[in-house]
Amino acid sequence: MATEAEREQADRERLEKMTVKELRVIAKEEFCTLGRRLSRKADMVDEIVKWKRFKGAYFYDRRD
Question: How many whole angstroms separate alpha carbon 16 and alpha carbon 28?
């Protein structure tokens, strides 16, 4: 089983391979507002990962 940190790192690596235009589409699909101030790709990736972490996307329920 992958831990939350491993899943977050894999997602971050996947996002870093995308273009800025693709990142804006991902953010729009996730309902994550980036704003115009985020012109750097690294900042956009950080904001998307923070938003997903906030939503609990990397959380794994261990109640089996």
Answer: 17
pLDDT of residue 1: 46
Residue 47 pLDDT greater than 90, yes or no: no
pTM of structure: 0.70
DSSP state letters, the chain = ---HHHHHHHHHHHHHTS-HHHHHHHHHHTT----TT--SHHHHHHHHHHHHHHHTTT------
**How far is the C-alpha of 34 from the C-alpha of 9, rounded, in Å?**
20
